[in-house]
Amino acid sequence: MFENLSDRLGRVVQNLRGQGRITEDNIKETLREVRMALLEADVALPVVKEFVEEVKEKALGEEVMKSLTPGQALIKIVNDELVQVMGEAGEGLDLRAQPPAVILMAGLQGSGKTTSVGKLARFLKEREKKKVMVVSTDVYRPAAIDQLHTLADEIGVEFFPSDPGQKPEKIAKKALEAARKGHFDVLIVDTAGRLHIDEAMMEEIQALHKALNPVETLFVVDAMTGQDAANTARAFNEALPLTGVVLTKIDGDARGGAALSIRKITGKPIKFLGVGEKTT
Fold it and tell me: Which residues form the SRP54-type proteins GTP-binding domain (predicted)?
């Protein structure tokens, strides 16, 4: 996913290695290259500006200017800043709760939410040995309910039925009650998306969050949306107490900019990366 960004930053590193000492001029030149590499990777402009400023501030510090290997010192600063933005270690799901632990999936239409519910259900069933129930509250797209039903049958997890005539909040509460009675470990809730962010959508998912009190609220986003991913991430992060991100369709995007933008804007870990539409 980060091939192009890595290649570009690699060339910056090679240019720096030959520098005997670091001056404000070659710091400026290096940061220009870093900025271009990030923009080409489709990282959101405000994120690029902030990242470059933070690197510049550290690069102009005493330890770099006086270092015997200033090029290496500057490379380390860029690397450390990237690590800080992306997070040092992968974070898993936190399911420490009175069962059933509820996972709420949020995101725009077409981001891959329903497929991600299926993949997550399979992961929890097969890897974590959990008893899983899934439910769709997307009453606007009957096909989404059918899709989740098909995925649940394929994976071998419980599907809680719903239909377009019901209210999302009521569906969610009934599913939670059924999951409790059936002694399920995890309930994964698929939600409605829109083609763009709107007030009604946010109010609905906030109401669902309040009704369910989930242990995990995951923001599902398509890696190929690039710059738009940053705006969507900001809106969902302001509306919901997100606990993590699921970045889908990463096989279609070699740039990696969406991951950096979302991680920087939300401050939330990218918990899962999705490849393809199959749940295997």
Answer: 100-280
With H, G, I as helix, E, B as strand and everything else as coil, classify residue 105.
Answer: strand
- 242 CB neighbour count, 10 Å cutoff: 21
Report d(CA 175, CA 103) in Å as an integer.
12
Domain range summary for the chain, segments of one domain joined by +: 3-86, 101-273
- Token pair 């009704």 is found at 211
Q: Which alpha helices (DSSP H) does 20-167 contain, by range?
A: 24-40, 45-59, 62-65, 70-86, 113-126, 142-155
Q: How far is CA 162 from CA 114, 152, 169, 173, 193, in A?
A: 14, 14, 11, 12, 16
Fold entry, domain 101-273: Rossmann fold (3.40.50)
Distance CA 168, CA 236 (A): 18
pTM to 2 decimals?
Answer: 0.82
- Rounded to the nearest 10 degrees, what angle do helices 70-86 and 257-266 cross at? 70
